[in-house]
Amino acid sequence: MILQFKCERLHYLLNTHYVVNVYKDKLTIGKNDPPKYEYQFTLQNVLHWYVDGLKLQAFGIQHNNAIKFFRANHKDLEQLRIFCRNLICFDNLGELYKQIDVEDSSKVLDQFSHQTYTLKCLNSVQLQGQVSLLRSLNHPNILSIRECFQHNNQHYAVTEFLGGISLENYIAKNPTLSHLQCQSIITQLLKALKYLHDHHIIHATIQAKFLLYKSDLIKIIDFSNSIQSYKVDTQDIKNCGSILFQLYTSKLYNNYDFNTVANMLQANTTPNQAQDLILRMLFDQQFTVYQSLEHPYFSKNLNSQEKKQRFQNFQRVQRSTSEMDESEAVSQYIPELQTNKSKSLRQLL
């Protein structure tokens, strides 16, 4: 058992008092064993909330084609919310989030914690797919999901607020990146990919437009085509190779052959070890993320000639991501989170 607290179900004459027991995969409600109610933590189920005064006052579960609400101490309810926020979909939480940016409707403020988050619209397929994958992950270069809830027949994921712009836009604004920048970006990406592969997750569509860049930090933000698999997949590595190719050349990799890629890299004075790594990632079908991270590219310094060539070509635009136009930011339109509370808690109970 992870959590236990008391609750009550209000009736017109006498209230009924119960004990809530919270386990890793379910909660039970009852006076003794066996409990009267049992509710599984799955994304197919919904945990309903009643919010008043920006505090959780009651929770509700689906039972016999009806929603049954139970009142409890708001501190206990907040603990329940924290524990199961990525195990089950919530309802009636829109009141706790306030949209705070006219230009970016996806930017919201948690009115209880006063922390800023991002809202992302999801369909039912994305809810079952992306949230199921992401809820168990914890890596600095992978977008984290706080919780998901439904509002006006629409599913939302509440994610960490990042700001910044897509890596694709950043490369377009800064066509000549330094060797250290390229190395930092691909290192973060490969470490995130190694983490995913260690958890038997294949991303499948790693692209610069699905990576968020801010202050030299990279985040993978899209998992719409990701799958869980125990098979070794090399497409992720090839996609990382295409990104490293783009970082050094500022050009999209368009399924060029080996010689074309080699000539383009040399024409852009790409360091020798970077050329070798890119070619291996793009054309060696047996090359893994683990081999990539052990490549000499990450341990050997540039020779004097390479340093001179990179310095001569380095014309980075001195413009931070915080100065980028809002139109370049990665965001999504979110309808206004209006709450129409027409029934009192007693009426619901």
Q: Specify the biggest β-sheet.
A: 9 strands, mixed
Structural class estimated from helices and strands: alpha+beta
CATH class designation of the largest domain: Mainly Alpha
Task: Please state the overall shape, judged from the principal axes of the Cα atoms.
Answer: elongated
CATH architecture of the largest domain: Orthogonal Bundle
Number of helices: 10
Helix and strand element order:
EEEEEEEHEEEEHEEEHHEEEEHHHHHH
Distance between the termini: 26 Å
Instruction: Give the total of beta strands.
Output: 18
Helix content: 25-40%
Radius of gyration: 25 Å
Summed up, the domain count is 3
CATH superfamily of the largest domain: Transferase(Phosphotransferase) domain 1
Tell me the fraction of residues in β-strands, as a range: 25-35%
Unreliable parts = 314-327
- State the CATH topology of the largest domain: Transferase(Phosphotransferase), domain 1
Organism: Paramecium octaurelia
GO molecular function: ATP binding; protein serine/threonine kinase activity
Protein name: Protein kinase domain-containing protein
GO biological process, one term: mitotic DNA damage checkpoint signaling
